[in-house]
Amino acid sequence: MSATEFHVESLLGIAERLRSAGCVFAEEEAQLLLTAVSGPAQIASAVERRVAGYPLEHILGWAEFCGLRIELDAGVFVPRRRTGLLVNEAAALLSADPMRERWNGSEPAMVVDLCCGSGAVGAAIAFRIAGLELHAADIDPAAVACARRNIDRVGGEVHQGDLFDALPPAIKGKIHVLAVNAPYVPTGAINTMPHEAREHEPLWSLDGGADGLDFHRRVAAEANEWLRPGGNLIIETSERQAVGTASILASAGFAARTVRSEELDGTVVVGRAG
């Protein structure tokens, strides 16, 4: 059997196993696994892990997000396609900023990726908008270690700590865009999530409290102190929870609007500081 014939036979066999395990994109996943690992034993191990419910991205060691390959370690939150809306809105606001012509090396636009996980959001924003001063922060040491590899590539800094406590005091009141993908799954709904998320992503990256909005309240309560006048807070939420998130931002003094993308199945609330 030629190498090509072996590859085709392996691809078909792996795809069938993945399909039987409930993988919707079995052929694509089989090809990725065959490309990522070499040798029968390694391929068999990777397939067994995927069939057992391990996230494909954790097996590959990377996730595709907004056209970038984001390095990803096991146990770190996997960036979702819907979060591309958060990146789109941040990039649109930065592009339309009337002060953009004055940004330079001594006073660039400042962006913060809060609850950054792997740093995917910050990296994607910086990839689209050149010349930013980028900061990212997360409370999880594993996420911070992963984010540093992704954020370093675009010249940003990563900090560890609880929300705003992680950020350097020197940037307080200077942030143009604060992008937040904090946990927003209601505690009671965690058990309804897909197995691979419940079992292989940290609970603190998913659980947003009784109504899912605990972190949105905490962020909104302090965000105005960290944003520059006219700066924007962008929070990912769900379509069902958007009214609650918008109400939280409005109560904190933001002019809030909701943006929905059916294509990405994503929802964000944008709050403009006074």
SSE diagram, text form:
Elements: H1 3-20, H2 26-36, H3 40-51, H4 56-60, E1 62-65, E2 68-71, H5 84-96, E3 110-114, H6 120-128, E4 133-138, H7 141-152, E5 157-160, E6 175-180, H8 195-200, H9 214-226, E7 227-237, H10 242-251, E8 255-261, E9 266-272
Parallel strand pairs: 3-4, 3-6, 4-5, 6-7
Antiparallel strand pairs: 1-2, 7-9, 8-9
Helix pairs in contact: 1-2, 5-6
Q: What is the 3D form?
A: globular
How many β-strand runs? 9
What is the average of the pLDDT values? 92
Q: Number of helical runs?
A: 10
Give the radius of gyration: 20 Å
Helix residue percentage: 25-40%
What does the model show?
This protein has 274 residues and is α/β, with parallel strands linked by helices. The protein contains 10 helices and 9 strands. The chain has helices at residues 3-20, 26-36, 40-51, 56-60, 84-96, 120-128, 141-152, 195-200, 214-226, 242-251; strands at residues 62-65, 68-71, 110-114, 133-138, 157-160, 175-180, 227-237, 255-261, 266-272. The strands form 2 sheets. The protein has a 7-stranded mixed β-sheet, sandwiched between helices. The radius of gyration is 20 Å and the shape is globular.
Any key phrases for this structure?
10 helices; globular; seven-stranded mixed beta sheet; two-stranded antiparallel sheet; 274 residues
Summarize the structure.
With 274 residues, the protein is of the alpha/beta class. The chain is built from ten helices and nine strands.
